[in-house]
Design brief:
Order of helices and strands: EEEHHHEEEEEHHEEHH
Number of strands: 10
Number of domains: 3
Low-confidence stretches: 101-115
Structural class: alpha+beta
Radius of gyration: 25 Å
Distance between the termini: 77 Å
CATH topology of the largest domain: Nucleotidyltransferase, domain 5
Shape: elongated
Mean pLDDT: 80
């Protein structure tokens, strides 16, 4: 006599075969409540330690399928978990802001394709990454992904914290887009020889090395713009947390 497993929903032991799952296991359907289930299911719950490990790996130069092979999770589950991580990122990027900020650096990442290689779905669909960095803490305080036009510069300026927008000077390169976006009394157009943009250039290199979506000739490119922006935002939030310092009152 074979003891049949009860239905996990209603506890009834009357059910019928109903095809197979995508993993090849026999699927059953309860004749009482209609619930579909498999006999002797495996416990596929992801432990908290695995979730923490995946959160760390998302900040490294690994493809999504590489993370699946390393941790032992399925790609559909990882995609859902990735969206949860991107959604949980705060708009302030975990950045520390002083009540009396000093110099704040505003610049964009290099727009050349060989410098960034940022695209979505196909290489012809370019998306430039604009960022704003605080010079004192070297934390990213604003992010915008768009084109090279002045509207993108205005969007970045609008996302900056109001306290830095009202007080801080802004050294930039001589790109014409900045004129008319940043107030003239705050804007400082400088050359590379002044070495005022070295921190932002160093972060650009870190971003390219740690985010596989930005690697040149990569196969880990973003298929949707929302995931592309989410990946940048997720890495910046974790980067800011590692750069938290004690600010003067």
């Amino acid at each position: 006599m074979v003891v049949r497993d009860p239905c996990p929903a209603c506890g009834a032991n009357r059910y019928k075969k109903n095809g197979h799952t995508r993993h090849g296991k026999q699927n059953h359907q309860c004749t009482t409540c209609g619930r579909q289930f498999t006999a002797n299911p495996l416990d596929r719950r992801i432990a908290p330690e695995q979730r923490l490990r995946i959160e760390q790996l998302l900040c490294e130069r690994l493809s999504l399928r590489g993370i699946c092979r390393t941790v032992g999770v399925s790609l559909p589950w990882l995609l859902h978990f990735l969206v949860e991580c991107f959604t949980a990122c705060p708009d302030h990027f975990h950045a520390q802001l002083s009540t009396q900020p000093t110099a704040v650096l505003l610049s964009r990442l290099e727009a050349e394709a060989d410098a960034m290689g940022s695209f979505v779905q196909k290489q012809a669909n370019k998306h430039w990454i604009w960022i704003a960095m605080a010079a004192t803490t070297r934390q990213i305080i604003a992010l915008h992904v768009g084109d090279r036009r002045r509207e993108s510069g205005k969007a970045l300026w609008a996302k900056r914290p109001m306290v830095s927008r009202a007080q801080a000077p802004f050294p930039t390169d001589h790109y014409a887009v900045y004129k008319g976006v940043i107030p003239a009394e705050q804007h400082r157009a400088i050359t590379k020889k002044a070495r005022k943009t070295n921190p932002i250039a160093r972060f650009k290199n870190t971003l390219r090395q740690r985010v596989s979506r930005l690697v040149r000739e990569t196969l880990s490119f973003s298929k949707t713009l929302a995931h592309h922006i989410g990946a940048m935002k997720y890495f910046i939030c974790h980067s800011n947390l590692t750069r938290r310092v004690a600010l003067p009152v």
